[in-house]
Design brief:
elongated, 2 helices, mainly alpha
Amino acid sequence: MTTRDELRLLPWVGSDGKPCYLSADDRGGYVFRLANHIEAFQLGMASQLLEHARRVLDDDMEDAEKLHLLATQLTSALRDVLRVATSRGRRPVTPGHPKGD
């Protein structure tokens, strides 16, 4: 998590597509709580999508259109999860190095 006097990366972008930030001092405020709620929702959706992806990939009969849709959804979920991780001050994990070293 962020410490005092830092900016928190919010789980959405502005109308111009640029990142939005909030002072970490505002931990009890409406926007801070909203960001926590949206992050939790994004992580939950990513988890559900992962389960769906496992089922789709296990089905040898899935067509290219369904696989393309799945790839698009997974890309979006991965973007959201990386934003949450960045917001919480964690470095992305490097394959083969579970602690990101």
